[in-house]
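G., the chain you wanted modeled:
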Amino acid sequence: MNRHSAPLWIQLLILVVVAAAPPVHGQDRPVMDEIVAVVDGDILLRSDVNGLVFNAVQQGSVQYSTELWFDALNQLIDQKVLAAHAKRDTNFTVTDEQIDQVLDQRIASMSSQVGGRERLEEVYGKTVIQIRAELRGEFRDQLLADQFQRSHLQRIRTTPTEVKAWFSKIPTDSLPTLPEAVQVSHIVRYPKVTDKAREDARQILEIIRDSIVVGGASFEEMATLFSDDPGSSSKGGLYQGSKISDFVPEFGSVASRIAPGTVSQIFETEFGLHILRVNERRGDVVDLNQILIQFDARKFDPADAIKFLTTLKDSIETHNLSFARIAKENSEDKLSANRGGRVLDPRTYEKNLYIESLGPKWQSAVAPLEPGQISDPTEVELLDGRRAYHIVNLHARTPAHRVNIETDYDMVKELALRDKQALEMRAWLDELRKSVYVRFRVPIPDDIPIATSS
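Predicted structure as C-alpha cells:
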C-alpha cells in the first residue's frame, strides 16, 4: 500500500467542518477511521467515505442512509479503478498546468470557507505550498480518471430508433407538461454614463480610499460595507487563486503591475470604478481584494443607445439584413454577440427559454412578437445585473404542452442518451474492476445493493 491516511482533500473538508463547529468539552474524541477498502494497492478509509457523504448531505440533495454511504464507497472505488486503468494507458496524460488550475480553485475554495489562507495553514498545520504538494497526486489521479471516463462516454451514441423505443416505454400520463417557451436573439447597447454619474462614483471611492490609505481603515471592512461587487463584497472584496487573464483587461492590467500590499489608484472598467490591493501574485495567478463602486444607473442617458438600436432595427427590416451578423458586429453583450445574439439558458445552454423563468422586462418585450419579428428598443437587466437596452428577435414560440417526441426530440434524445450512458458505464466499470485488485474490508449488509469484487 502506498498511502496510510485519508486523501488530503477529504482531510481538508473535515477540517473546514471542525474549524466552523463549536468545541465539544468533556467528551473523549471517538476513533473515526478504519480501512474500508483496498484498490490497486491504495487504501480507502472510512473518513474518505464520510467526507463524500457529508458533502452530499450538506448540499441538501439527499438524506443520510446506509445505502447512501455504500453508494459513496462505490463511487470512490470507481474513481480509483478508473485512475488505475488510465495510468496503464499512455494515451492519457495530465499536464502540470491542468493540475495547478484545479489546485488553485480548490485552495481558494477551502481558504474562503475557513477564513483565508493563513487560517487554512493554521488549521491544517502546514503551509499552502506543502498542502499543494500533497494534493498533487490526488488531483492527478482524479484528472486521469475523468479523462479515461470521458473517452468512453464519448463513444456511446443513441440512434433515432433507440430514442423512440426509450420514449415509448414511458406511460403517457407520466409525461410532464412543459410551460410556454421561446427562442430569441438580441442586440444590446449600454446607456451612456453621464459625467455626473462618473463624478459621484469617484467622490465616493476617493473617500473610501483615503479612509484606508490615510485613516488606516481595513480594506476588507470597507469592501464589506461599500463595495457593489456581489461576488466579493461579502468576503471583504477577496478574489483568491484567480487568473489575471480572467479579469477584464483594465482590471487585469492593474492587478498585474501594482506592488503587493499597496492600494491602487482609482481606475475604471465597464462595471464601474475600482480600487484593489494585491496580496500575492504567482505568475498569472493572483490573490487580491477589490472595491467596486458602480455608476448610478438613474443618472445614465439612454438616448444614444435607443437611437442606435432603432436605426439597427430599421436597417435589418428595410434591407432584409442578417440579425445574427448585425448582432456580432454591434451588440455590446459579448457573450451573446459571439453567438450572433442568440440567448441561451445560462444553466443548461438550451435554446428554449421558458417564459415563466424570464424577468418581467423580457416577458413584456417578447409578448407581442410573432416569430420573425423584432421588438422596439426596451430596457433589460442582464445576467451580471447591469442595466442595458436591447432589441429582441423572436425565432420561435412553443405553447405549453405535454412532452412529445415530435416537438421535444432534442430533450428526449438527451434523456435517452443519459440513461443509456448510465447503464453502459455501470457495466463497463464492473468489467474494469475485474482487472484491478479491489477488496472490501467492511461487512456489507445483504439488503444494500452494491457491486462487489474480490
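The first strand starts at residue 35 and ends at 39.

Shout if anything looks off.
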